[in-house]
Design brief:
heterodimer; A: MetI-like fold; 12 helices; 0% strand; B: 494 residues; Dipeptide-binding Protein, domain 3; 4-stranded antiparallel sheet; 15 helices
Chain lengths: 306, 494
């Protein structure tokens, strides 16, 4: 187990480096950060002076060596846009994004299991049809639109919740719901179909014949077999949310998270901040993957990690 | 029974009364701006969000009235020009910074030197680039020097905020702004809000609004929702469609002008007749009415902003005359030729829609239009590429300094900014006007320049855009022509 984790960490480090370097090259080769930063009307001399001050006029290789040296100390340089250490911006915004994800995805996980099981108990029944239909609707609605719809209904019309921003728990409800809706739909449909398969297995029939209670059959035996695919999908949802899907929700709800910050960094050509964000997200994703592998092993000891 | 009823009623009236009284006492408002200030250091960044907050905390030597006239602020009077390169400012006495530091010549000299210091790589050099330095004459007299003759130095001083030297050295100016302005910094809850409170000691007396909170909301739809839900009192950049929805709104001509710069060297647009045809082929009024619902004015035949020095009053807007446009194309033998039109999308209000509408009008007079909408940084690369010029490109120019040199140096000075011509004489005249210190002579130069640019149609001036603000029913405010959010000019009606 220990050597497995070490090896995965090493591989993960390579992945993180690869991603970071790609960003390093792409931001410098395509598009000119200086012309994005300065007003349109800045003169060529002003642009050149600015490029010199932030070191962009040096050869790419020299910049790269400097970048690698600083990377060892986790020093990504100062964000050009915010004029303070880029990593400080990341550490300030990342917790907000994580809070949003935990709330949104947590809600999806907690709600999808009972919903999926109830639907699976009577396939084709009214509850099942309702779940499937609502699930499909949930999957096909764009988050952007759902977010604005929620704001109009719950904040503007009913005045129950604040429209945007962060602060009280009430601020968290609408963005978390919006973020959790798609994963909820996908996870519920998955639990439902896997559960239907599972309930038709011989061992379930045997267990019922032995007189085991329904809740024990569902909760202990069937659910454990559903859990592997459930966890795989959850991991995938988590990673795709982290890698970009929060941007939309954070923008609509003015949620001060890392997604919104990344978006603004791109618009402003802030390559130092972009590098720091990409590095941190890539690092998190690698960690999540390792954690998932370990979780799989714990659920199903037959899985061979090597 | 009757008695109890009376007592309840009295209590109700009393509490209602105290509620209103409370509201009168604490006049606090919330303003939703489009982006969070990147820093609250007023001298480093060219950042609209930062200005929207700091314009209320800091002051400048000269300021503008809401209608755009330059007036003394921290200076006691308008500056005197000593020689071509030197301006003398007499300072107002008895002003102190919020932390008690005195405002004097030392503060001005420090502020000037700080913003021009190369190691600070201030983006504001785009506005202040001509400034060489500053020296103290006495405690309340400062001389500011420029690297070349600079007739618009006074306008530039409206863009240079004065910081307290001691505080700037010892504390973190980026997080703890201290100015001389009508509002004092209270708190910055990163990512969420910034709060300022009225400075009761300000020389103009305490402003009406006692406390102002800024919220940062990128998405226009969310700003609108917040206004409708009663969370915000003022929101910026209200889309024109929603002027009918909001409780109150105000529109004013802002500092932005849109245009399409034509290349005078490219094959397709070399003939002035073609360029004139491109101008009169467009029904600008229809676009302004339909796309902007009237919240844009047809440009007066020039890119120069109507409030700017150097605006040519005698030039009329290009008429809409597609028949004449076809005729001009025929004379030039350019019927059916292809014109590339470069643009971007999403940076400016309805940019793509305007570009597509223009392309439609050009197609109607018998041209083929190759519309190329690029991602913004790619668009900038092409805009600044002096070797290969697009036949035509759409751009929105903002004139912060209210001076024609802004447009001239960006759009027409060959080899600089985004100019698409190679006329040396034109560039020389532009440079001459930039450094001409005799204002009358300078005005004449600009009249000549604008007349030539109009006659030979170096570009297709489109609209002077308006800024639209959404407001809650209780707000009283007339927005300014320079687009600044000056809270001391706002008040709350009860």
């Amino acid at each position: 187990m220990g050597s497995f984790i070490l090896r995965r960490l090493w591989q993960g480090l390579l992945v993180v480096l690869g991603v970071t370097l790609t960003v390093f090259v792409v931001t410098r080769v395509f598009g000119d950060p200086v012309s994005l930063m300065l007003p349109l009307t800045a003169t060529a001399e002003q642009r050149a002076a600015f490029a010199h001050e932030i070191g962009l006029d040096r050869p790419l290789l020299v910049q790269f060596l400097g970048f690698m040296r600083d990377l060892v100390a986790l020093d990504f340089g100062n964000s050009l846009w915010q004029r303070r250490p880029a990593i400080e911006v990341v550490f300030e915004r990342l917790p907000n994004t994580l809070l949003l994800i935990v709330a949104g995805l947590g809600f999806a996980i907690l709600a999808s299991i009972p919903l999926g099981i109830i639907a699976a108990l009577r396939p084709g029944g009214i509850v099942d049809r309702l779940t499937v239909s609502l699930g499909l609707i949930g999957l096909s609605m764009p988050q952007f639109w759902v977010g604005l719809l929620f704001i109009v209904i719950f904040a503007v019309q009913l005045k129950l919740l604040p429209t945007s921003g962060m602060g009280t728990p009430a601020h968290l409800i609408l963005p978390a719901l919006t973020l959790g809706l798609t994963p909820l739909a996908r996870l519920t449909l998955l639990v439902r179909s896997s559960m239907i398969d599972e309930l038709n297995q011989q061992y379930i029939k045997a267990a019922r014949a032995k007189g085991l209670g329904l809740s024990r059959i569902l909760g202990v035996h069937a659910l454990r077999n559903v859990l592997i695919s459930f966890l795989t999908l959850t991991g995938w949802e988590l990673i795709s949310i982290l890698a970009g899907y929060t941007v939309v929700v954070e923008t609509v709800f003015a949620w001060p998270g890392l997604g919104l910050t990344a978006m603004q960094a791109i618009q402003r050509g802030d390559l130092f901040l972009m590098q720091a964000i990409v590095f941190s997200i890539a690092f998190l994703i690698v960690l999540i993957n390792i954690a998932l592998d370990i979780a799989f092993k714990m659920i199903d000891p037959r899985i061979n990690l090597n | 029974m009757n008695d109890t009823f009376r007592r309840v009623l009295a209590a109700a009236v009393f509490s209602a009364g105290s509620l209103t009284a409370g509201a009168v006492l604490a006049q606090s408002i919330t303003i939703a701006i489009g982006s969070e200030p990147s820093t609250l250091d007023p001298q480093l960044r060219d950042d609209g969000g930062e200005r929207q907050v700091n314009d209320n905390i800091y002051e400048t030597l000269l300021a503008r009235t809401p209608t755009g006239e330059l007036v003394p602020s921290l200076a006691a009077e308008m500056p005197k020009q000593i020689d071509d390169l030197t301006w003398e400012f007499t300072l107002r006495e008895g002003v102190t910074f919020h932390n008690g530091e005195p405002f004097n010549a030392d503060a001005v000299v420090y502020s000037v030197k700080r913003v021009v210091a190369p190691e600070n790589a201030s983006e504001q050099m785009a506005y202040l680039g001509t400034i060489a330095g500053a020296e103290k004459v006495d405690d309340y007299k400062v001389r500011i020097t420029t690297s070349g003759p600079d007739p618009i130095l006074p306008s530039r001083m409206y863009w240079m905020k004065i910081v307290p030297p001691k505080h700037a050295e010892e504390a973190d100016l980026a997080a703890q702004p201290v100015g001389t302005g009508p509002y004092k910094f209270v708190s910055w809850n990163r990512g969420s809000d910034i709060t300022l409170e009225a400075n009761a000691d300000h020389r103009d007396g305490a402003p009406d609004v006692e406390q102002v909170t800024y919220r940062f909301v990128t998405e226009p739809g969310t700003r609108l929702s917040g206004l409708m839900a009663g969370e915000f009192d003022v929101i910026v950049n209200l889309p024109p469609e929603f002027t009918a929805t909001v409780p109150k709104f105000a529109a004013v001509r802002g500092i932005e002008t849109s245009t399409i710069i034509l290349s005078t060297d490219n094959e397709a647009t070399r003939d002035p007749r073609v360029r004139q045809a491109l101008n009169i082929a467009i029904d600008r009024k229809a676009i302004a009415d339909n796309l902007f619902l009237g919240y844009a004015e047809v440009a007066k035949g020039q890119l120069i902003h109507p409030n700017a020095f150097g605006f040519n009053k005698s030039i009329e807007a290009y008429p809409y005359d597609p028949d004449r446009a076809r005729q001009l194309l025929a004379e030039a033998g350019a019927e059916g030729s292809t014109i590339e039109l470069l643009g971007e999308s999403g940076r400016w209000l309805k940019d793509r829609e305007v570009i597509e509408a223009v392309a439609g009008y050009w197609t109607e007079i018998g041209l083929k239009v190759d519309v190329q909408i690029e991602e913004f940084s790619r668009y900038l690369d092409r805009l600044f590429d002096m070797k290969v010029r697009p036949d035509a490109y759409f751009v929105l120019n903002s004139n912060e300094l209210f001076d024609a040199d802004r447009e001239m140096s960006f759009a027409y000075e060959a080899g600089a900014g985004g100019a698409s011509n190679s006329e040396k004489e034109l560039a020389e005249t532009i440079r001459a006007a930039r450094t001409e210190t005799d204002l009358e002579e300078r005005s004449t130069l600009y009249d000549k320049l604008t007349a030539k640019l109009h006659e030979e149609a170096f570009d297709v001036p489109l609209f002077n855009h308006q800024d639209i603000y959404g407001m809650s029913a209780r707000m009283e405010w007339q927005p300014r022509v320079d687009g600044k959010l000056i809270v001391k000019e706002m008040s709350v009606a009860e």
